[in-house]
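*** Fold description ***
***
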Amino acid sequence: MTNPVKTVIQVNLEMALEVAHELELAPSTQLGAYCLEILREIGCTGTELPLNLQTRDQQLNFITGFASYAFGEVQNV
């Protein structure tokens, strides 16, 4: 028997990785702006990136994690 939860998580991860892959070539300013947009969407009011989102890798990980969560929410509606 296939575990449906595992299947959903795998699909979400694949979709999130696609988003991250598309943004890998984006300029740093675009990644930073996208991170700020995500932060605003979840209720943060700052205008600068926090210390834990200063590097390109941190920003890509944040975007990938958020995309995975977002796809999970959409898929479970």
Q: What stands out?
A: The chain has three helices and no strands. The chain has one domain: 4-75.
